[in-house]
């Protein structure tokens, strides 16, 4: 057991931290100003300063680092990092959530989509969509969640994907499709049912749909609290009405959809959780700065016992959480997604709750300003709050985790008896 | 001791409940649609359906009920209700926060401003501003909070009000001035210092400033979790640069500002707290409806133990809270603001925390939709969250309450010894 | 609506408060010393100072006040108080839980047992057992809870009561029978099944069993944390092996057991909750005194923000809770046990959680001493902790309360549609 | 970074787990029975089954493993383990807190005392007291806490140690001196002031006092929630009245007391925290077993959503906590006590709160029985609750941790500016 990062990680961390200080943080206000000046506010990835950041990140070798699959060759596709090596980089990027991940071409949902194409795509699919995604030329979306189906229950998807000659015909409604409002989100991975009569986990397939395919409509952006999240392409409600795509757009084979979704899930969780820890660290930083600066009744509020209690609790909680997420990354590297199953659930449960708590306190230290556009805290809070539903609400995950704990304990008892 | 509402209250509650069912709830979607279609989105009180509601409320005698000062004559200015009689009506109105209070001409900050003018205004001030406010023809704002001063510390106000011949000259910066973005907010009550050398509670004065006075500028609307709250006039940042108003615009005398602010505070707290309870009741209603309708893994989520726990806790907490707020209203009626001091603090502490908790659970039961524009829950949450800062953060109030508890207990010990 | 106590209550409160100050508090240490010196530590009601207190309470008319049934004649059996009048007296008595209730002959479980005999007993039963109980000459126990049955599920009782000629034969095992270790607990009300084939709520009966009846054995005292609670007769585990009692010992008729248990429950809840509030008030008193006295790092801990937060929260929570319990008492007086059903559940849920929280903080303010025999706090905590199971765990009550809330809300929706 | 235990740790864990299953768990009931039959209940380390366990542990090489100082030679004094290697063994031993640690001669406070003697003792002191302690022949106590001094403030100790010729004369009062009621606790390490005029951290010294020294009196055992903790020697209140000991009993030099106390602290925290995690694991085990067995309203309570929520939360919290404690152990091994300072504070804050929460839920799942002598849960709870005060209350540690966090963040800001 060893709690020290390896040399590669240390070097990449140092490089990324420098990039953040020299380029990313200074660009934050610029980005929002330039984005506000765009004709189409959804067209976020055309913002000039972001383009500069991307060039700089690429120059520094901070590009596509997320692609941790073991088959990736360094320099070629990904950086050949392990999940455990990439995780602390994801954390750092989370400190400037709207800028650092896209600057490094490491932003969701593109990361998961690139992983899917990387692992399951045909050479043609890779050429056509993975390459421009890896090059940061286009963006993508992942269309799974549906309004009428609990998102925790992927087997229940209502969208149909029906073979008709050389084509598949898609019908269905999706919502909360992140990134989809961006006109440059050119390609959608759509989950639907190809065979509702198959085994429960073999009914679903994934298929690629291009943005301008007839019958595919983008209706509106869902808001989170009052944010439309145009900084990263919003969350769209979509319909597919007799949408026809070539049969070769299928990813893997018919019935592979659920398996691909599961494979996509694990690394995504690590990324989300580590970025959320980065958000929490940024919030602690802001909370401490504000506590030192703000004077009430004649002394800085950093001297108030209750504020200190929040700061200490924040530190204690985030240290524990980070270790659990890192251990989960390590498990994924060493025993795989399945062996890390309980931990992947655990970090899904722990992360949003912990970070939400910290954000609430950081906001409170800021007074009403903390809820406003003058600080990033309320927007962070909104984003983190959605994680308590993403891939199913906390309660579903807790229920499942408890079930396996009960099973595990029963086995121990049986072994004793 | 008697927990039954009196006949007058029962009748008014019945009348208001009927108005809500027949007119207010059905108008909610209409209001947002019509508001969205306005040229100026801040001009909320010109929305047609709201005008109809106001006419209907007036017809039904549900108008200006908030004006509980004992000197008001029924039929003349207010309805002559006690705080305890008005409180349950405020609760009901909170169930449709954007519509019911303004429909009844009982929306903050106009209510507090009308109370101030009613109690402290000169006949000329009443004629010029209170009358159109009571008639619902214009709107008003209350400009106290400043960016550089903890809002819990009203004695610390930085804005200056300097006598110069027949005029006062005002200089300062204010923010979070609710309602001020509305072009029909014609009159501002501004708090500032007339004499920084006077006793700590005699330095401040209040003065009336009309919207179009030269030197008075409205800069921007503050946002709360992405919401600009244009449904009720937003929260503006303002500056006063050598703003000159006639000396007769002063409310009361020089140095009366702090006292007027205190007098304004008590009833406002009751209103805010009761409306917040109404919000919580609406949230419980939505939570139960959703729990019954939404099916996950084959059964309504209303059958899940954790969801039931939330529903039960919500009920248990809100019942306790309501009683405390009603008791506080009763104390204000019977022993006055001062006698109700501890309770006024207590409800300030208890209400936002309780209602925020309930809203968080109601949102969770709704899934991601609960955070979106499809339900009012996230917007309610944002509004309630601001109450944890309004008139100073929770922590200041807890500290003060604890201090008086410690003092009280020390007296009991002394009496024993 | 009126939050003032009536004159009768005010007078009785004043009288009881005086009794507490002059007699009860000063006797607390004496009681524990004298109890420690007894040959049989369970024989608590023979402690001399307690006998003196009882005489004094009786002299002051503070005797049997709990008996609130409307048929009781003042001066005769009870004092003819309403539940709402008695409730604040129960609170005050809770401040010295081991002394004040028994001094006033108002201690559980005798109170509930006297109510049962008063309401359902035959003249012979009253003469033989109610009269000495009302006179404070003997003590009693209520034997319902069983080791193998969830105590929330009274319909599931395993003890059998079988008619055999002029007698009933009782077989079964009970535990947590409070007061039963006291050798002066002469009479037991035992709940069992007379007809397992009857309707679910008509299977149970209650029967009187004298302490020295053959086949009735008292095995051991259950401990709570490390306390055996000999100060009020402990909590015994009992067995009934072919215990024979005369048929006239049955209370009411066969099958009346469940109904009698329900009737006994309501007032008991009020008493328990109000006494618990008294415990909380005593804890706040101790917490404030300690916070003022104890110096750490050069200043009294009463000046620490976190300690103030606890004191304020304690006050805010207990004020809300008390009002809900008082309202429940009022409902029982005005609409009866059934009409107060939801509130009786609500106070069962809210009280132990709230008071446990306050006690935890009061202990923390005391440092390790707070857990020791030098202060009553740990013992109070232990007692309150048991209330989270008494008559079924919190979770059962929350589940039931949520079910009725869901039903109520569904009705409202139906009425609208 | 690597989350796998090394081979040595894996082997020792396997060996210890086997010892627990084969010997320790089966001995638990026997121990309490034999202890109950002793003439002197405090004389716990003479219980026969415990002696057998010690022999068996020694035979298996599970003896004195705690002694992790780098200078210890394997086989000679300690086992030469690192803190990180010993920590998981401490966890396992915590599962049977009254038996496993003493069986392995790894029970507090002897462990800390042996470390002190090992690191700072003279050859004579080692021969006379360390050797029999390492052999498990005698027991010891550590007398630091005083009734009138906040235990968080070691610099404030009131006990005096005054040189008088060849002797030191000790005067003072101590309490909560764990293990001291055991007649076989032959040697006491006493902290006091030798020079109240020296620098704040050089006033204190530690000195060895034998149990039978004239003037040294043991007054009473402090109780914790009704428990006297005679299973491990209780917690005594002591006085020293002109107690004279030879000058060579001083540990280190005059003024070294504070430094020795600090050196003793770090490893002790790791041990306490890991054993507490063992307690939590045992509680989760009991909670799961009970949830599977206990049927309420027709189904096992393991199927109730709320119970599952508790089980999942328990697992999620304990996994995080364990990693933080292990990391702290690793830091102590690699950068020393000082480098691990923040983490040592963090685990002091996190551990009792987390484990107390889990125990509360485990108790709740057990119903009233969970509070009784029939399960170890209430006793565990009492023990863990004291940790929220040990070496100072949580609040002191949070305050200190927040202060250093604020300082650290200010440095980061300064570096940026």
Give an account of the 3D structure.
With 417 residues, chain A is of the alpha+beta class. The first copy, chain A, folds into three domains: 128 residues, Acyl-CoA dehydrogenase/oxidase, N-terminal domain (Butyryl-Coa Dehydrogenase, subunit A, domain 1, Orthogonal Bundle), CATH 1.10.540; 117 residues, Butyryl-CoA Dehydrogenase, subunit A, domain 2, CATH 2.40.110; 159 residues, Up-down Bundle (Butyryl-CoA Dehydrogenase, subunit A, domain 3), CATH 1.20.140. Chain A is built from twelve helices and ten strands. In chain A, a hairpin with a 2-residue loop joins strand 2 and strand 3. In chain A, helix 7 packs parallel to helix 10 and helix 10 crosses helix 12. The longest helix of chain A has 37 residues. The first copy, chain A, starts with 6 loop residues before the first helix and ends with a helix. At the B-D interface, helix 8 of B face helix 8 of D.
Question: SSE layout and pairings?
Answer:
4 copies of one chain form a homotetramer.
Chain A: H1 7-36, H2 48-59, H3 83-94, H4 100-103, H5 110-120, H6 123-134, E1 139-143, E2 160-164, E3 167-178, E4 185-193, E5 204-210, E6 216-221, E7 235-246, E8 250-251, H7 257-293, E9 295-296, E10 299-300, H8 305-334, H9 336-339, H10 341-366, H11 377-387, H12 394-416
Parallel strand pairs in A: 1-4
Antiparallel strand pairs in A: 2-3, 3-7, 4-5, 5-8, 6-7, 9-10
Helix pairs in contact in A: 1-2, 1-3, 3-7, 3-8, 5-6, 5-7, 7-8, 7-10, 8-10, 10-11, 10-12
């Amino acid at each position: 057991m060893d709690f020290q990062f390896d040399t590669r990680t240390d070097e990449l961390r140092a490089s990324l931290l420098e990039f953040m200080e020299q380029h990313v943080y200074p660009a934050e206000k610029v980005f929002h100003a330039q984005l506000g000046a765009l004709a189409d506010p959804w067209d976020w990835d055309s913002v000039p300063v972001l383009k500069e950041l991307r060039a700089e990140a690429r120059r520094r070798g901070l590009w596509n680092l997320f692609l941790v699959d073991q088959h990736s060759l360094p320099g070629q596709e990904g950086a050949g990092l392990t999940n455990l090596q990439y995780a602390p980089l994801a954390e750092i990027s989370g400190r400037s959530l709207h800028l650092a991940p896209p600057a490094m071409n490491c932003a969701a949902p593109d990361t998961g989509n690139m992983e899917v194409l990387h692992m399951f795509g045909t050479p043609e699919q890779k050429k056509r969509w993975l390459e421009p995604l890896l090059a940061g030329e286009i963006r993508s979306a992942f269309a799974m969640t549906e309004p009428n189906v609990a998102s925790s229950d992927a087997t229940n998807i209502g969208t149909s994907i029906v073979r008709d000659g050389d084509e598949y015909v898609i019908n269905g409604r999706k919502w909360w499709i992140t990134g989809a409002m961006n006109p440059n989100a050119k390609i959608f991975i759509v989950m639907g049912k190809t065979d509702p009569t198959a085994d429960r986990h073999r009914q679903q397939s994934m298929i690629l749909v291009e943005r301008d395919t007839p019958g595919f409509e983008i209706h509106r952006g869902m808001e989170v609290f009052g944010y439309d999240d145009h900084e990263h392409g919003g969350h769209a409600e979509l319909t597919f009405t007799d949408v026809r795509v070539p049969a070769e757009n299928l990813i893997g084979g018919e019935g592979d959809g659920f398996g691909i979704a599961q494979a996509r899930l694990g690394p995504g969780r690590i990324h989300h959780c580590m970025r959320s820890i980065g958000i929490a660290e940024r919030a602690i930083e802001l909370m401490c700065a504000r506590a030192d600066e703000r004077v009430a009744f004649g002394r800085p509020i950093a001297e108030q016992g209750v504020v200190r209690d929040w700061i200490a609790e924040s530190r204690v909680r985030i240290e524990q959480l980070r270790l659990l997420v890192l251990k989960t990354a390590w498990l994924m590297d060493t025993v795989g997604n399945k062996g890390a199953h309980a931990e992947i659930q655990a970090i899904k449960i722990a992360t949003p709750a912990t970070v939400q708590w910290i954000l609430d306190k950081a906001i409170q230290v800021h007074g009403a300003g903390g809820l406003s556009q003058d600080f990033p805290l309320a927007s962070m809070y909104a984003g983190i709050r959605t994680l308590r539903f993403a891939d199913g609400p906390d309660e579903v995950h807790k229920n499942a985790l408890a079930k396996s704990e009960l099973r595990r304990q029963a086995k121990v008892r049986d072994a004793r008896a």
